[in-house]
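Hi C.,

You asked whether I'd gotten around to modeling the 328-residue construct. I have! Everything is below, sequence then structure, no commentary in between.
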Amino acid sequence: MRLILAIGYVAALWGLAAISAAGASLNEYLKIRSKYGISQAAGAEALETLVGTGTIEVRATVKGVMTVDDRTTLLIALPGSQSLSIGAEGAPAWLRVPNTTARLIVQASRENEFAELNAKLIAAIEEGTIRAWEEEQRRKAEAAAKARENKPQTTRGNSARNWNLPPHEAIPVYAKFIRGYNPRLTEQQAQEIAHGIIGFSIQFGVDARLITAMVLVESGFNPSATSPKGAMGLGQLMPGTAQGLGVRNAYDTYENLFGTVRLIRGHLDKYAATGPDGQKYADLVTALAAYNAGSGAVRKYGGVPPYRETQNYIRKVIDWYRRLCRAN
């Protein structure tokens, strides 16, 4: 039995098809990314909480690369001291170098929340390479957005800000709005918040404008916000709620937004009603009430509880959501 261990850094991504697998060139990697509609990398906690089957792009830390009887496994660090294992047959040599930063495309499945994760590396690329490409795309998107703002309006009532854009174009638009509301943020912080909002909104199928409105009302886009009751971070997650969502550091931008979007997605599903056409429609008001006051309060009062804080919260979120929707 052979055992090889090397410390390193990795990142997992949303689905890609096997190609000389891990050691993909930038063009090959982008083709795989495009094939599966990947536009945003998630954190390693997305793999930890995954139930079902998916191909995911994530950022993470590779604690080591282990080879046992010709089977290679990446050990991906989670917040705290835990780790996840990803099968990595054909992993390139550079992934085995200590402290290597990278992005990984991973196919993963888990039957239920108590089952073991089965994950396989599909492709990998050095973090610096993909970051440089993303930065180039960001600059292009900003230039395009600036050009649109400077273009004379031909239709009365049009807005220069368009919230219905491809993800790579939407991120600088969202980041500009976020930093405009909270100028204490650095450009990088605003970019990270925009990345998280858009990426996790795509992952969970929620309107990113709704998440933007929620985070604005919850914390004013302050990742360090703490309420008198102990709610934490951008989405103001309570400690018990954060733990149940798999969020270990609620003050981390990506972890908090992952938990925030996952939580509201669950409430939207729970309080969905069937319309006359047989389709399910989410009850946004009740879902927001449950997010703010908890499902127990909603169940106790049979709907929105008579709490002034909750009722004001719902009004503020919906008001901002409408404003962002009208911005089209």
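If it helps when you're writing up: The two ends are 61 Å apart (CA to CA).

Thanks,
B.
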